[in-house]
Amino acid sequence: MIRIDLEKARPGMVLAKPVNNLQNMLLLRERVELTERNIHMLRSWGVGEIWIDGSHSSEAAFPVQNADALQEAIDRELENRFANVADHPLMMEIMRLAGKQIKRRLLRRETEHGTPAS
């Protein structure tokens, strides 16, 4: 479990603790995977810090240019594999989720073992 500034929060990170506003109203429960939308909502409520699951923290520390190159490579591979079903919305959602999972797995492996994500 790691405490980070909300400005460092990225979609895909998982909350390790619930997030409440100043009036102690629950905004997000623990184990919620962050999205752009709920990060924006937390900012609008004035939340400054959140606790995230340590197994998802590798994305926060990963340099943006390397993460972008990694994402491009993952996207190309998935587009090749899903080329025959690209017109089906459900298959496109499966492809998107598979890409997120692959990226997390590669980034975690690099953080834990020091091997380049490729």
Largest sheet: 2 strands, antiparallel
The outline comes out as elongated
User: What's the arrangement of strands in the largest beta sheet?
Assistant: 1-4
Output the radius of gyration.
16 Å
- Integer average pLDDT: 81
How would you classify the helix and strand content by structural class? mainly alpha
Order of helices and strands: EEEHEHHH
- Which residues form runs of ≥5 with pLDDT under 50? 56-64
Q: Percent helix among the residues?
A: 40-55%
- Enumerate how many helices there are, as a single number: 4
Number of strands: 4
**Percent strand:** 5-15%
Q: Give the termini separation.
A: 26 Å
Topology overview:
Layout: E1 2-5, E2 19-20, E3 26-28, H1 36-44, E4 49-52, H2 58-61, H3 64-81, H4 89-113
In words, what does this structure look like?
The chain is 47% helix and 11% strand. The chain contains four helices and four strands; from the N terminus they run E-E-E-H-E-H-H-H. A hairpin with a 5-residue loop joins strand 2 and strand 3. The radius of gyration is 16 Å and the shape is elongated.
Quickly list its features.
118 residues; mainly alpha; two-stranded antiparallel ribbon; 4 strands; 47% helix; elongated
